[in-house]
Specification:
The structure holds 3 protein chains of 3 kinds.
Chain A (H helix, E strand, L loop, with lengths): L1 H22 L4 H6 L2 H4 L7 E5 L5 E5 H4 L11 H6 L6 E6 L8 H10 L9 E5 L8 E5 L8 H5 L5 E3 L5 E3 L9 H5 L5 E3 L9 H4 L16 E3 L4 H5 L5 H5 L5 E5 L4 E3 L4 E3 H7 L15 E4 L17 H5 L7
Chain B lengths: L4 H15 L3 H27 L14 H12 L1 H12 L9 H21 L9 H4 L6 H32 L8 H10 L7 H34 L11 H28 L7 H32 L2 H11 L5 H20 L6 H27 L20 H24 L5 H4 L4 H14 L1
Helix pairs in contact in B: 2-15, 3-5, 3-10, 3-14, 4-5, 4-9, 4-10, 5-7, 5-15, 7-8, 7-9, 9-10, 10-11, 10-14, 11-13, 11-14, 13-14
Chain C lengths: L1 H33 L4 E9 L5 E11 L2 E4 L4 E6 L5 E7 L5 E6 L12 E7 L8 E7 L2 E10 L2 E12 L2 E5 L3 E8 L4 E9 L3 E6 L12 E10 L3 E9 L26 H36 L1
Classes of the chains: A alpha+beta, B mainly alpha, C alpha+beta.
């Protein structure tokens, strides 16, 4: 009991801080900057600006930077198909904290060596109906427990592991795109063209299922919950990159999720904040939960601040 | 094998068709080959540069190719149904047209699957389907079903051709090359028309006619299930399998009527392909149009009535004249009602009119396949944001059109070549007396076995 | 109504903060243009459960109004308790962090006086030198794991150590109990040390390691002014069974998404294929027969 109260207190104090941040306009950025170097890959996508001792801004290959950059995971394909023993990974996305900062997207792109226009994570501006309030909703792969994509794969190139992660073997994929149609969430992205703007050194690396890199032309890719990181006990890059602590990641078997700075019992977090899964009616049993956008840290309009015109245009697209 | 006079007479009529390569034929072939070569170039570009040069993108991952795939597999029903059912029923008027129908089946069954291959990002890994095939996947169902179907249609066509091949082998004085003569000899496998051989052949054809029908039904059901097994509005429908089967028979009949009309005009087959054929097949087309219309109505009424959000968004696009409205109304109203009206009114039911409404129905069905695939894929569950703007809507590029035209050209070309090889009207059948008497002849031999 | 007042207060607060921010920005720009940049070192001291000590230093500076951590900075650690003595030097990693590890037997808080550690940065062309001092007394934290009336209880005791002998009890500091998780520590209990002692109850429904049901507890005095962080580690079988395990292990459901297909599907497909290909075979046999008959006829 007492324990819970303290947790709540801590949580609300953090929120107060964040609220203050919004009020003070740009001031919130300074709070972020501290840990920003590793998470913020700058604007180029492939190169990252790093401050050196003599104060010069040096451009470094992002592969050198992210926490798992030099590790081409040495897990065999067979082992990669089994998963990490005893784990059942789960993600909780707190919608009340998201302001479309888009750090998760760029971190993910760096982690997986994706070109700038290929997003494994997208942030949607959701509005269920005209009268309901709009909110930002980051969308990863949901790593469903009844994965429709995996059902339809003709060659077993996409598969579900014992630890709950749904992965793609880009070396087996025949590129039939059936999984892309089967996934109702549009989580899957096709490698339509030969890789562009990716350093040759990365392309020359031996492919590994767990790192998902380098992506192979003519096959399907998607968010993979960074299994090469989790195998090392490190959080996926989207989680650590988020300046607002939106993403919580953890092991359902441990009943624990963390965003790097706060750690909660998963069951309590879902219970206390009325967590839910997106479109439960589809029966796909996602491994990603959402916390509803109540008591928000940011007004929804703040999500447009700091976006380039190109990025803003992405939200004017309609399917009509 | 001795060839009776009646057969000789009939063959004499057809021999110019298989002997002469006239100018018209050569020019048409050249045009078709040019189109096919261009399609081949498009294919080369696609394989070299990737699917980025098609109109397909992350939302609409399947487009024209899959529409063509469904379409060609659909028209392959002509052979399966017309020859299969009519043979089993021993319908006399089938005789002059079954070869056309079987040609359609074989050629379309070859072309159809090529389009699904065009949808694959990694053709070089095709073998993975064998190495790692999972039978849970509707694609594997399709691979198995279509392979079986191709084997079946070839067998069926071949069986029905053996008698004619034997006649061609044993007709001296045909102005044909050595190789062709040898091939007749080889393919006729020593058929001499003895009673026992005839019995074996007749039994084989009967078995094949019986079995090709369920195979055809399964093939098209499985094809429908590729769509039906996904969580997509407009696809996830329980009636999709029968709906596709009916659509297939509808389009197959339509293409058969078109082919009949062409051959009748080109080869002057007025004596064999008569008004009766157009009347009867026209009736079949009418019935199919009616059933298809019924399915369409049922499908869209149920979707529209409940107005479930995701469904409603797709339907809105279909009905909206600024989006797919014109295409939709063309396919369901013109393509469906016109055949019923024109064929239903006796005064309008001329040979030309029947052929014309068949062509319209076939075109409408092709449009309908496109409408089944594209609007659904253009309507994702989540808002189409945070994506490349130009990637939401689909419009086919020159590569896809080139390969589509290439498929049509291949269809026509293959037809032309095949009808140069064997007479388009089964000589052995039309020269024979009506089957009733034949039946009496065959029966006692069955009993003695 | 209440909301309205709150709103205006917040507005005013926001405005004043904005002004402060602007002033700060101008000041920052001036310094950036002319002189070397100020550097800041943050030092944290952690006494681990195995008695090793870690001194974690983070180097940062404000560049263009943003605080950034400095990568590749050479830092030196000094023990300045009696005289200044260099212990070690190291370079910061990409996150601007260096961790110095002192062995378990490194003397801290000798004769009851706090040890003084200093982390120094000598400066560079662009950055000013900086140093940071901390004073640390050695503390021994013990945790006794007991089940009292079927409640999991940890009795914590903390004493300052003088030359390896427990001395004055540590009082008036918070003490927390965490369990180690894959990515982080999960807080499961907390207490307040009075007279060197605290009793903390632990919930009994925390899932343990999936096979052994072990939990690794970390009892911790976090960042106390005089002692730094003091930890005590203990692994004990106090975990509940994992809730989801072994749902995805060794259970072959033959679900649609699994490598192996449902049995009925395999059987149905088998029957269909067998039926069709049997007939194909039959026809092949008949064709062969026709061929043989033809040979006989000719002969």
């Amino acid at each position: 009991m007492k324990d819970k109260k303290v947790q709540k207190k801590k949580d609300s104090s953090r929120r107060d801080f964040l609220k203050l941040g919004v009020l003070a306009g740009g001031a919130v950025v300074s709070g972020v900057g501290l840990s920003a170097i590793a998470g913020n890959p700058g604007s180029t996508g492939e190169k990252v600006k790093v401050m050196t001792t003599d104060g010069k801004l040096a451009e470094v290959d992002s592969g050198m930077l992210h926490s798992c950059g030099s590790c081409s995971s040495h897990v065999s394909n067979e082992e990669a198909r089994k998963g990490i023993p005893g784990r059942k990974f789960v993600m909780v996305i707190d919608l009340s904290r998201c302001k479309n900062a888009r750090k998760c997207i760029s971190a993910c792109q760096n982690m997986h060596y994706l070109p700038k226009d290929k997003e494994w994570i997208t942030v949607k501006l959701m509005q269920e109906s005209e009268e309901t309030a709009p909110y930002w909703m980051p969308k990863t792969c949901y790593h469903c427990d009844e994965p429709p994509c995996t059902k339809v794969c003709p060659v077993g190139a996409t598969f579900k592991r014992d630890d709950g992660i749904v992965l793609v073997d880009n070396e087996r994929c025949i590129g039939c795109k059936f999984c892309m149609n089967a996934c109702p969430y549009g989580a899957r992205i096709f490698n339509w063209e030969k890789p562009k703007g990716i350093p040759q050194e990365i392309l020359d690396r031996p492919y590994n299922i767990e790192s998902g890199a380098p992506q192979i032309f003519g096959t399907v890719g998607k968010c993979d919950f960074c299994p090469d990181m989790t195998r090392k006990g490190m959080l996926p890059d989207c989680v650590t990159a988020c300046p607002n602590g939106v993403y919580f990641f953890g092991d359902l078997n441990e009943d624990t999720v963390t965003n790097g700075s706060e750690t909660f019992r998963f069951s309590e977090l879902i219970r206390d904040k009325a967590g839910y899964r997106f479109h439960e009616d589809l029966g796909t049993q996602p491994s990603v939960y959402y916390l509803p956008p109540v008591d928000r840290n940011f007004p929804v309009e703040s999500g447009f601040k700091g976006l380039s015109d190109e990025e803003k245009a992405k939200y004017k697209v309609t399917d009509d | 094998m001795e060839i009776d006079n009646k057969t000789k007479e009939v063959l004499k009529e057809f021999s110019p068709q298989i002997e002469n390569f006239n100018r018209r034929f050569k020019i048409l072939s050249a045009i078709l080959i040019a189109i096919m070569l261009f399609a081949l170039y498009a294919f080369y570009r696609q394989e070299k540069e990737g699917h980025i040069i098609t109109g397909m993108r992350d939302n609409v991952v399947w487009g024209l190719y899959i529409a063509n795939f469904v379409f060609f597999i659909g028209i392959s029903y002509a052979g399966a149904l017309i020859s299969g059912i009519l043979h089993l029923l021993k319908v006399e008027w089938r005789k002059p047209i079954i070869r056309i129908a079987e040609f359609i089946t074989v050629i379309a069954t070859i072309i159809g699957p090529l389009y699904i291959l065009l949808c694959m990002g990694r053709l070089d890994r095709l073998f993975n389907l064998v190495l790692y095939g999972r039978i849970q996947s509707p694609i594997i169902w399709d691979v198995i079903a279509i392979t079986t179907y191709i084997i079946g249609s070839f067998l069926f066509l071949y069986l029905a051709m053996i008698r004619d091949l034997a006649i061609l082998r044993d007709t001296p004085g045909l102005k044909i090359g050595k190789f062709r003569r040898w091939s007749y000899k080889f393919l006729a496998i020593g058929y001499q028309g003895t009673k026992e051989q005839d019995k074996q052949l007749e039994e084989s054809i009967t078995i094949m006619s019986a079995i090709i029908i369920p195979i055809a039904v399964i093939v098209h059901s499985v094809l429908a299930w590729i769509f039906g097994m996904t969580l997509r509005p407009g696809w996830h429908s329980t009636i999709f399998a029968p709906y596709f089967v009916i659509a297939a028979i509808f389009s197959g009949t339509g293409v058969l009527i078109m082919a009949m009309w062409f051959y009748r005009k080109m080869f002057h087959l007025e004596k064999y392909i008569t008004k009766k054929h157009f009347d009867y097949l026209g009736m079949l087309l009418l019935i199919m149009a009616a059933i298809y219309g019924y399915f369409t109505f049922s499908e869209y009424l149920t979707d529209w009535y409940t107005s479930e959000t995701w469904n409603a968004r797709v339907l809105k696009k279909m009905f909206d004249l600024h989006q797919y409205g014109w295409w939709f109304y063309f396919s369901v109203l013109v393509g469906n009602l016109l055949p019923i009206i024109v064929i239903g009114i006796k005064k309008l039911r001329t040979i030309n009119n029947v052929a014309l409404v068949s062509a319209i129905a076939v075109l409408a069905l092709w449009v309908k396949r496109y409408l089944i695939i594209v609007p659904t894929l253009e309507t994702p569950l989540l808002p189409a944001q945070d994506t490349r703007m130009e990637w939401v809507h689909y419009s086919p590029t020159w590569v896809e059109w080139a390969l589509t035209m290439g498929g049509v050209a291949f269809f026509i070309f293959a037809f032309m070549m095949l009808s140069k090889y064997v007479p388009i009207v089964p000589v052995s059948l039309v020269s024979k007396p009506v089957e009733k008497t034949e039946e009496v002849e065959v029966k006692p031999t069955v009993e003695t076995v | 109504m209440n909301k309205k007042i709150q709103h205006t207060i917040i507005k005013k607060l926001g405005r004043s903060l904005l002004i402060i921010l602007c002033v700060a920005l101008i000041a920052g720009n001036v310094s950036a243009a002319g002189k070397k940049l100020k550097t800041r070192i943050k030092v944290e001291y952690v006494k681990k459960g195995d008695n090793t000590k870690q001194i974690k230093a983070t180097v940062s500076s404000k560049v263009k109004r943003k605080r950034v951590t400095l990568k590749g900075v050479a830092l030196s650690l000094f023990d300045e308790t009696d005289s200044t003595r260099l212990i070690s030097t190291a370079t910061t990693d990409k996150k601007g962090i260096t961790v110095f590890t002192l062995p378990a037997d490194y003397p801290v808080g000798k004769d009851g006086a706090p040890s003084v550690f200093a982390v120094r940065f000598d400066g560079s062309e662009k950055y000013k030198p900086a140093s940071k001092k901390i004073e640390i007394k050695d503390v021994k934290l013990t945790a006794d794991f007991k089940i009292v009336d079927s409640v999991y209880t940890i009795e914590v005791a903390a004493n300052e150590m003088v030359n390896g002998i427990p001395d004055a009890p540590v009082s008036d500091v918070d003490v927390y109990v965490y369990v180690k998780r894959l990515f982080s520590l999960l807080k499961v209990g907390e207490g307040y040390l009075e007279d060197g002692k605290a009793t903390i109850e632990i919930p009994n429904d925390i899932p343990g390691e999936y096979k052994t049901h072990n939990l690794e507890f970390v009892t911790m005095i976090p960042e106390a002014d005089d002692y730094g962080t003091v930890e005590n580690n203990k692994t004990i079988k106090w975990g509940a069974p994992a809730p989801k395990y072994p749902k995805y292990d060794n259970v072959n459901q033959r679900a649609l998404w699994e490598p192996r297909a449902p049995l009925w599907m395999v059987i149905t497909l088998g029957i269909l294929l067998l039926g069709v290909f049997y007939h194909y075979f039959l026809i092949a046999c008949k064709l062969y027969k026709i061929k043989q008959l033809g040979k006989n006829e000719r002969a």
